[in-house]
Amino acid sequence: MAWFMLSLAIITEVIATTALKYTEGFTKLSPTLITLTGYGISFFALSKVLDQIPTAIAYAIWSGTGISLVGLIGWVWLDQKLDLGALIGIALIISGVVIINVFSKSISH
């Protein structure tokens, strides 16, 4: 159940962060509601994850995966350019998440 909740936390955080771009300083109602609802669900789900996965591990996976997905969405759908430094940084973040999942004994698989 922890992995389902962590996935839910990541997906809703990515949706909320993507919608944040369209809030125009929280002056647009629909994207503002999506952003606030998404972050609310994300933090609720993440709080449930912390009952089973150590905080540092859960947060690293949640934030690293979220950063990578938001970067990909910005590049593919929002036509935002990523330079070599940004791509290398995202690759290192993804590598870190993979290393945690494959080698850490702090989480149960």
* Biggest sheet record: none
Say how many strands there are.
0
Look at the structure and give the mean pLDDT: 93
Q: Give the end-to-end Cα distance, rounded to a whole number of Å.
A: 11 Å
Percent of residues in beta strands: under 5%
Radius of gyration: 15 Å
Q: Determine the number of helices (DSSP H or I, runs of at least 4 residues).
A: 4
The secondary structure category is: mainly alpha
Main location: membrane
Keywords: Cell membrane, Membrane, Transmembrane, Transmembrane helix, Transport
GO cellular component, one term: plasma membrane
Transmembrane segments: 32-50, 57-78, 84-103
What would you note in describing this structure?
It is found in: Cell membrane. Pfam families: Multi_Drug_Res. Belongs to the drug/metabolite transporter (DMT) superfamily. Small multidrug resistance (SMR) (TC 2.A.7.1) family. It comes from Polynucleobacter tropicus. The chain has 4 helices and no strands. The chain has helices at 2-20, 29-49, 55-76, 84-103. Helix 3 (55-76) runs antiparallel to helix 4 (84-103). The termini are close together.
Give a short overview.
The chain has 109 residues and is an all-alpha fold. It has helices at 2-20, 29-49, 55-76, 84-103. The radius of gyration is 15 Å and the shape is flat.
Topology, please?
Elements: H1 2-20, H2 29-49, H3 55-76, H4 84-103
Helix pairs in contact: 1-2, 1-3, 3-4
InterPro entries: EmrE-like, Small_drug/metabolite_transptr, Small_multidrug_res
Protein name: QacE family quaternary ammonium compound efflux SMR transporter
Subcellular location: Cell membrane
